[in-house]
From TrEMBL:
Entry annotated with the keyword Heme: no
Any matching Pfam family: SQS_PSY
EC number: 2.5.1.21
Entry-linked PANTHER family: BIFUNCTIONAL LYCOPENE CYCLASE/PHYTOENE SYNTHASE
GO molecular function: squalene synthase [NAD(P)H] activity
NCBIfam families, per database record: HpnC
Domain of life from the UniProt record: Bacteria
Secretion signal, residue range per the UniProt entry: none
Keyword annotations from UniProtKB, A to Z: Transferase
CDD domains listed in its UniProt record: Trans_IPPS_HH
InterPro entries: HSQ_synthase_HpnC, Isoprenoid_synthase_dom_sf, Squ/phyt_synthse, Trans_IPPS_bact-type, Trans_IPPS_HH
Record protein name field: Squalene synthase HpnC
Amino acid sequence: MNTSLRLSPRGVDHYENFPVASWLCPARLRPAVAAIYGFARTADDIADEGTDSASQRMADLSTFGADLDACYAGRPDSGRWPCVFIPLRGAVRDFSLPQRPLADLLSAFEQDVAKSAAGAGYANRAELLDYCGRSANPVGRLLLHLYGISDSAALERSDAVCTALQLVNFWQDVGLDVVRGRYYLPAEDLQRHGLDPARPSTWAVHREAPKLIAEFAHWTRSLMDSGAPIVHQVPGRAGWELRLVVQGGLRTLDRIEEMGFNTFAARPALGLADFPAMLWRSLRM
């Protein structure tokens, strides 16, 4: 997610919820932020772009993971992605970036490939949160690492915000995702509202569908609110960028509510007209 008011499933270019090395980021951190973004963006491309088979995607992600191990072990890598691993080696050297969050991101991309190939969804919210914990939360933790923030309260708040942003994307794009064969609505919740998890083509016209999205939106708003105090722990201009990111997510939830929670029919989007409200709410934080 960037600061351009585009809360899309692919953020800037296409990677979810990623604060890019903008003018709000201190100059000394920009190369490291760009290196993290490049890693995530490229791995996401391998998992999601082009026409490769699922088996080829998994093989490429395996090689990508081996190159990550080589990066941290100081060994030569495959040489396939120099634009990723040369900058990343510099970030690891200069900022002692932990490997685990990057490996978690990679495992989430592998899960995307496996689930898409199988046409599978998530059984319950716990499974979905586990996925968000590897696909979104590592980014926040890596950025906190760059700012030297490591206390447990900050990490929990960062996780809440990152997960909430990812969930916003899911509820915002639910109609598009169903068409693409991606299912993020937990089966347990679908069944509770009378929707058949095995028949995604029927979800959009089910009378309970808006109520289901409303329930998810309220849950996500609570999660975002619980993590919002993290903005007071991130220093300087980055803290203001984070305020706008949080308010962008909340504003998108407002848009979802305004359209009667029927995101199966249309995708809510933010524009320049939303910026004054987001800025005012950011100031009030």
